[in-house]
Amino acid sequence: METIIRIAVQKSGRLSDDSLSLIKECGIKFYNGTGKLKSTSTNFPIEFLFLRDDDIPGYVADGVADLGIVGENELVEKNKEVTVLKKLGFSKCRLSLAIPKSEDYMGIDYFKGKSIATSYPKILGDYLTAKNIQAEIHEISGSVEIAPSIGLAEGICDIVSSGSTLMMNGLKEVEEIFRSEAVLIADPKISAEKQDIVNKLLFRMNAVQKGKSNKYVLLNAPNSSLDRIVSLIPGMRSPTILPLAQEGWSSVHSVIAEDQFWENIEELRAAGAEGILVVPIEKMVL
Ligand SMILES: Nc1ncnc2c1ncn2[C@@H]1O[C@H](COP(=O)(O)OP(=O)(O)OP(=O)(O)O)[C@@H](O)[C@H]1O
Ligand SMILES: O=P(O)(O)OC[C@H]1O[C@H](OP(=O)(O)OP(=O)(O)O)[C@H](O)[C@@H]1O
Ligand SMILES: [Mg+2]
């Protein structure tokens, strides 16, 4: 029988769209119609399980799924034996302590003897222990931001991204206790045959991620500036240089890192580059 791997992804929520887009960008085709909780790819030996994110670390640790995509917050909270293969760069958020806007806050001692509502009792408990704060942790599974206004707790510890949910509920963020993003996790006891398939998937994911974090750049420059320009955008091996129809000018093609983009462009212009085009890269294999 053909070996096939299983990946657990969130059925619907903050991780779902980016998880599925990443898999599609890896060229893997599958059906994910509403209500379908299991699906097999038509062109890659992988089966999908669509689950609540809370269950993903446990399924992977138990070997029910070989891989999973989950937030680091959920992974640390569930404290299961899994291997983190890769940070995925999406669903970035933080776990923070928040209190009613009207309260004065002078520091973490504020929480001594207070009650705090959260869906992350382990992460919060470990944090409070490390800070030597005794507080009562009130575990609830969702809509945590409502807790202070209904008298359930004095503060909360929950996920924050833009901060708008806190604001809409009359709360202010006072301590960030954990930073999170989506990660690809694996069962540490995976077989060698399955590991081969995982490696193929990782190769594709790396190519997609590298493509996203780099740009293809094309520009024109006087030949006298070429040395300087080549030193600014050395590219993968070295830039391509093609002569323009106009005497004394060349076209330079190279790759630059997205996060150095604006700095590079300024320096390239100062070095005499003009007609600069920057183009997205779909995949990049080094
Ligand atoms: N506002 C946000 N911005 C970015 N990432 C977020 C945000 N909220 C949550 N996340 C990340 O996405 C994960 C899933 O969040 P979501 O709100 O979809 O979970 P959920 O409601 O527990 O879903 P499920 O029904 O699967 O249990 C979180 O554990 C966190 O890592
Ligand atoms: O800082 P913000 O940008 O407002 O994001 C934070 C909110 O996002 C998440 O909830 P989500 O909207 O996913 O709904 P849920 O509570 O149903 O999971 C999280 O639980 C916070 O409540
Ligand atoms: Mg959940």
Automatic annotation (TrEMBL):
Pathway membership: Amino-acid biosynthesis; L-histidine biosynthesis; L-histidine from 5-phospho-alpha-D-ribose 1-diphosphate: step 1/9
Gene3D superfamilies: 3.30.70.120, Periplasmic binding protein-like II
Keywords of the record: Amino-acid biosynthesis, ATP-binding, Cytoplasm, Glycosyltransferase, Histidine biosynthesis, Magnesium, Metal-binding, Nucleotide-binding, Transferase
Gene Ontology molecular function terms on file: ATP binding; ATP phosphoribosyltransferase activity; magnesium ion binding
BP terms from Gene Ontology: L-histidine biosynthetic process
Enzyme Commission number, as recorded: 2.4.2.17
Cofactor: Mg(2+)
Enzymatic reactions: 1-(5-phospho-beta-D-ribosyl)-ATP + diphosphate = 5-phospho-alpha-D-ribose 1-diphosphate + ATP
Family: Belongs to the ATP phosphoribosyltransferase family. Long subfamily.
Cited function: Catalyzes the condensation of ATP and 5-phosphoribose 1-diphosphate to form N'-(5'-phosphoribosyl)-ATP (PR-ATP). Has a crucial role in the pathway because the rate of histidine biosynthesis seems to be controlled primarily by regulation of HisG enzymatic activity.
Protein's UniProt name: ATP phosphoribosyltransferase
Organism from which the protein derives: Lunatimonas lonarensis
